[in-house]
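A quick aside before the break. I want you to see a complete sequence-to-structure record at least once, exactly as it would be stored in a machine-readable document. Don't worry about memorizing anything.
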Amino acid sequence: MIFKRGILITFTGIDGVGKSTQVKLLSNYLIKCGNKVNVGESMFTYFLLKPLMGLLRLTTGSLSSGPVKRNKNPFLKLWFIFAFIDIWAAYIFKIRPIIVNNDFVIADRFYTDIWANLFYYGYCPAWAFKLFVKLLPKSDIPLMLSAEPKTIFKREQEFPPDYYYEQQKIYQSLAKLIKFHIIDANSDKNSVFKNVKKILTYYNVF
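That is the input. The structure line, written in tokens, reads:
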């Protein structure tokens, strides 16, 4: 499979699984090969909804930074509708132009990660999670890094252990709903990167 200029490569996975590390390794490799590469987390942030995040944090009693509190308000479960519209607006008006103007765009987290977090924090009901995730923008090469929760917890103790186990279940569900190239991220970063390169070789990226 051969792509024209503008290939979107996305890394999806639980916080701490090693996405940023692999993005850095891959971007450096592609740049050394003479490619124009754009790297960022812009596909894990809100676009039109950004001004409303302060109001959401205030409504839920969340801190001004970091993750919002898990939602118990049935009306706020409708937040996924606005998030879905926001995702598509961002993709069309912000991300597509970036893709067109680069050889590769590498996303450290993607819209699927937003969707996983919406479900985890209670801003998206289960039925909407399963249905709308299939309608999100697609990447050319979707990669999911997967590791055991206990391995991730040892690397990054940002959240309690239960968080990583719950997130693992959500990402396993994602992998059943939409297509990913799943990469075992339990080993060291160089071993993981070898597997990343194998997948990209299949797409004739190198």
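Two observations worth writing down. The chain has eight helices and five strands. The mean pLDDT is 90. We'll return to this after the break.
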